[in-house]
């Protein structure tokens, strides 16, 4: 791990995986996760000669908090990391809550992006023409509704979930549990989640505010790089209608909808997405 100074002097924790001199690919983690989140078999990165770069979003793990941050603010953070590592143009991808943050960089720093991909990403709550909560699991609908009421409402909801002993895994539908029970997935996610909330849950709350409670701060239509938008059609964490909305608005996007996959199906989809990103 090393630290990068972003705008305002905040420190961001950055981790690298795979081949040190390989092709750089930046990954934006889901929520609540950390820089330790990634495809659970690191041999994928070495086999493809990939230098995978991950980082803690503000307030998670070792990265300093940025209260009131928007999704668009991720562009400056990613740019600071790229500048520090000497990366001019590179591909990036994000999973679940990381998807919008990858899209933000592609929209706001188009000259630095070769290709961009999302897997199981949400659309913005104010997405025109999208019935945002349709087909979505109850806990995500509750979180988004609380975020729209303000940060204090989210704090209260998190406190209530803590009292009831709910964890992120326990809130997920039964259809996701088989993937989450795989030893390599369970070990990676357990470490990534523990690191994410080690300093507390403020980063998680800030993430949900950025995703659900505030305008994202960019237009997906501004993305000029080739894009792939993957989603499982059985996903009830973030329904596939969100991917269809994103793909319809990103000019060079290709929608990949897997009829047999749920939210955690993104693990199986990652190798092909990574190979596609490298073509850029």
UniProtKB/TrEMBL annotation:
GO terms for molecular function: hydrolase activity. Pfam families: Abhydrolase_1. InterPro entries: AB_hydrolase, AB_hydrolase_1, AB_hydrolase_fold. Residues 24-267 form the AB hydrolase-1 domain. Keywords: Hydrolase. It comes from the Bacteria. This is Alpha/beta fold hydrolase. It comes from Nonomuraea purpurea.
